[in-house]
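Priority: medium. Attachment 1 of 2:
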C-alpha cells in the first residue's frame, strides 16, 4: 500500500494553497493538544515548495506548537477530571497515560524536551505536565527547545536538500511511514 506517498502528494498540493500557513499553524497547535497528525507532514512539503520561507515556516510551526502545548498544559492543570480523564477513558489510553506519568516522575522536565523533539506523542506530555503541576517556565522552555530543534531540522533538510530531497523523500515516504507505525506498535507492546 502506498498510502503515505498519496498523503505526501496531497500535502504538497496543500502546501501551495494560499492559506497554507494558516493550516500549518492550526495543525501545529492542535497536534500539541489532541490531533494525531504531526505538523512535519505539512512543514516539509511547504519548505520544499517555498525554500525562501523555510525558516519562517519553522518559526511559525514552533510558536503554534508551543502555544498548543501551553493549552494542553492548562487542560491538564485545571480541567483534568472533568475534560481530559473522560476522553482518556473513552479512547482507552489509561495505560499509556499511566506510563507518561511514570516517565514524568523519573525524568522530569527532560521528558518534555524528548517528547517535543521525537515522534513520541507530544500531546500526552503537555497534558501530563499540567496534571503533574510541573513548573510552568521549565515546561515552556523545554517545549520550545524540543519543538524548535525538530522543526528547524525538518525545514533545514528541505531547504538544503531541495528538489533532490523532495524526490528521495517521496520515494521512501512509505517506508518511513510504515516504519514509524511499526516502531509505535513495538513501543506500545514493550512499554504499554
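Attachment 2 of 2:
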Amino acid at each position: 500500500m502506498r498510502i503515505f506517498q498519496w498523503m505526501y502528494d496531497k500535502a504538497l498540493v496543500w502546501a501551495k494553497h494560499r492559506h497554507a500557513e494558516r493550516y500549518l499553524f492550526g495543525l501545529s497547535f492542535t497536534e500539541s493538544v489532541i490531533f494525531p497528525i504531526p505538523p512535519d507532514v505539512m512543514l516539509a512539503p511547504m519548505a520544499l515548495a517555498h525554500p525562501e520561507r523555510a525558516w519562517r515556516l519553522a518559526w511559525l510551526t514552533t510558536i503554534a506548537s508551543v502555544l498548543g502545548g501551553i493549552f494542553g498544559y492548562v487542560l491538564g492543570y485545571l480541567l483534568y477530571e472533568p475534560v481530559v480523564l473522560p476522553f482518556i477513558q473513552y479512547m482507552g489510553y489509561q495505560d499509556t497515560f499511566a506510563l507518561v506519568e511514570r516517565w514524568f516522575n523519573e525524568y522530569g522536565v527532560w521528558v518534555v524536551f524528548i517528547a517535543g523533539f521525537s515522534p513520541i506523542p507530544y500531546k500526552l506530555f503537555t497534558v501530563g505536565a499540567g496534571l503533574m503541576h510541573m513548573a510552568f517556565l521549565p515546561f515552556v522552555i523545554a517545549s520550545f527547545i524540543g519543538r524548535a530543534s525538530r522543526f528547524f531540522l525538518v525545514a533545514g533538510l528541505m531547504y538544503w536538500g531541495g528538489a533532490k530531497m523532495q524526490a528521495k523523500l517521496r520515494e521512501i515516504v512509505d517506508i518511513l511511514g510504515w516504519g514509524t507505525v511499526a516502531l509505535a506498535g513495538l513501543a506500545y507492546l514493550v512499554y504499554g
